[in-house]
Recover the amino acids of this structure.
């Protein structure tokens, strides 16, 4: 077997290893423990791993290690780091998807797919035209479910971080945080109707590595004039192409555009 062939086999083996997250920074010289009940169940009963098997662990500091299972008990799994992997699967910019509260299954689909496409943070907001309303006593339960969906999507898509999910009862709370961002964009369907096609692309060209980008999307009924006016002096309204997109697909268009412009185009230029 050639060296290239052997390297290919190693890559395939690594890619087939199951991935999990640990809420700690990496340290090659110590052992780590998985204590999440669902992860323990998945490792033991679904994947049927035993002592000596290898799994991949993503740490808080975005370091990734192949680890060996050294002990399995009912409430924890002990791991020994074996080899650090050189992996970078994150978008070069930090993207927050702020979207109007939409019907449950649609929002869960949005969370899953947007995580796969590289979003870092999610904020669900009860906006003026939101058909769905979230009762205060059910907020935490809903966030826990959303966070679980995001975690599973992050593991499946080889993300280095698990995006966080928050809920706000109105857009004013978001307005109060705009100083945390380098760019605040509003995906406004009227811009698409008016034929605006270039502004979003021009803004993407200006993004720099590690820029913090907030993109606001309306619910099924769109953003109200009052909500647009709230951000008028601190944001840029952008159209997402010539078509009118659904509330759950517009974030995917935006994330795919960012990935194409800042990842794929850069790779193509490097190849040339």
């Amino acid at each position: 077997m050639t060296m290239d062939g052997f390297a290919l086999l190693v890559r395939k083996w690594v890619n087939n290893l199951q991935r999990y997250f640990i809420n700690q920074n990496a340290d090659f010289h110590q052992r780590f423990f998985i204590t999440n009940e669902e992860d323990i169940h998945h490792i033991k009963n679904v994947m049927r791993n035993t002592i000596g098997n290898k799994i991949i662990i993503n740490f808080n500091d975005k370091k990734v290690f192949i680890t060996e299972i050294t002990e399995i008990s009912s409430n924890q799994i002990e791991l020994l780091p074996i080899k650090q992997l050189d992996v970078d699967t994150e978008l070069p910019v930090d993207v927050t998807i702020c979207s109007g509260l939409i019907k449950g299954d649609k929002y869960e689909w949005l969370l899953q797919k947007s995580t796969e496409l590289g979003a870092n943070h999610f904020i669900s907001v009860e906006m003026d035209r939101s058909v769905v309303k979230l009762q205060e006593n059910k907020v935490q339960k809903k966030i826990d479910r959303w966070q679980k969906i995001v975690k599973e999507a992050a593991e499946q898509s080889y993300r280095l971080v698990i995006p966080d999910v928050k809920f706000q009862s109105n857009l004013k709370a978001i307005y109060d945080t705009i100083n945390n961002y380098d760019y605040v964009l509003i995906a406004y369907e009227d811009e698409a109707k008016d034929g605006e096609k270039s502004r979003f692309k021009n803004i993407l060209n200006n993004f720099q590595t590690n820029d913090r980008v907030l993109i606001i999307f309306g619910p099924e009924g769109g953003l109200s004039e009052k909500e647009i006016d709230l951000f008028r002096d601190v944001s840029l309204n952008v159209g997402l192409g010539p078509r009118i997109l659904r509330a759950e697909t517009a974030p995917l268009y935006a994330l795919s555009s960012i990935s194409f412009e800042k990842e794929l185009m850069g790779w193509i230029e490097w190849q040339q």
